[in-house]
Every structure is written in structure tokens, then in C-alpha cells.
Amino acid sequence: MSTMTDKILRHATNSATTDAEADLSSFDSDGYTLN
Amino acid sequence: MVLGGADLTNAFVGSYSSTGTGTQAITGVGFTPDLVIATHIVNDPNTPGGFSTASMNISAFASPTLRGALSFRDTDAANPTQSSSYQRSDKAVTGLSSGSDTINHEADLSSMDADGFTLNYTTNLGTAGFGYLALKGGKYDVRVETQKTSSGTKSTTGIGFTPTGLLLMGTNDTASTSINTTQAKLSIGGSDGTTEGAV
Question: Which of B157, B160, B166 sits opposite A24 (nearest CB)?
């Protein structure tokens, strides 16, 4: 398990292998954008 | 997670036991919820620290069309590994058996009611206890979103309002009517628009 304070999302196989991670870019008028 | 603000008028934490298939009204909430977050844990044996198998469900629902649910399970010290996960975009509650790749509980939301909510169980293999947090006030959207398959930005639209907070949960897999018997992963993340965090 890993804990990150600079990402909104992290999918990982283990603590060393990141499958996907994203930041929040913005809250928008009709939703949100991830980067 | 801390909730508050003038828009949030009511909050209630409760529990119920599933009783069978068909509709089940959960009452005693005291208001019509705008959002319910539910969870369900199965472990065997049911002794703290003595688990040999365990499963967990996390779900949320805001209306009969705005909902999502995920479950995952694992058997301790199994060889070969026994881990699986299950994620639905069209169910309000799911629950995997702790000891096998079996869907034990599954329900959709029929309605938010004046004193709680009504679930329609399509699968219910035995009584199970669920805990929930019901909220009234504010605006909520619950959905299953697909993950971008390359780097770069991806916008999710159709929410109908500008969010002030975002909570993401997933099993690192696509939503499906089938159990993924190869993995039991859970990712949770959130942001208030300035600060973000993920596990």
C-alpha cells in the first residue's frame, strides 16, 4: 500500500509499480478535469 | 473526510441487515437522503485478528441512476492466490463472498424516501449487515467513469454543477457484470480543489 499527498488517484500493482496516477486539474462548471 | 457547510443540513449514520431478495425499505433516517455511502465487510472467522478470509464492499448512491458499487475479497495464505474484485456502474450495493468468487449480495436503489431509502435486492445469499452514512443537502453525483488510457487531461462532464469536492474509488479495473478473479485492488483518492491525496 502507498499513500500519496500529491495525487488524487493512483492505481498500482504494488508500492513500486504505478499503473496510473492523476492530478486534479480543475473543477469545471459541468464536472472536473484530471491530468 | 470532513463534511460541513450551510448546504449540508442532515447527516445520519445507521446500519441494517439485508433480509432477502426484493425490495427492502431502510427507515429511521429521519430525512430524505441526497447521498448514501454504504459499506459491508465479511470476515471468517468473525474474530478480530483471526481472519482467514475477508471481503469488503464500498458503494454510493444519489438516485436510482446515479450510483456505483465495488467489492473485493482475499483469502489469507492461499496458494495459489485467491483474490478477486467486482465493480458495477448499475448497482447501489454489491457484496462478494469472503471465501469464494461468489456474489453474495447485490441491490439497486429503488428510491430515496422521506425516512430513508429502499433497495431492491436481486441477490441475497444470507443475511448481511451494512453500515451507511446518509446526507441531505448539497449536490451530489455518483457515477463510474472510465480511466484515460494515455497521459494527458480528461474532462468528465454532465455533472450539472461545479464540484467543491471529489472522491474517487476504484478496483483498478473496468466495471463489469463479471468478477475479476485475478486481483483485489482498491484505490481511493480525493481533493477539495486545492489539496489532494490518494492511497
Answer: B166
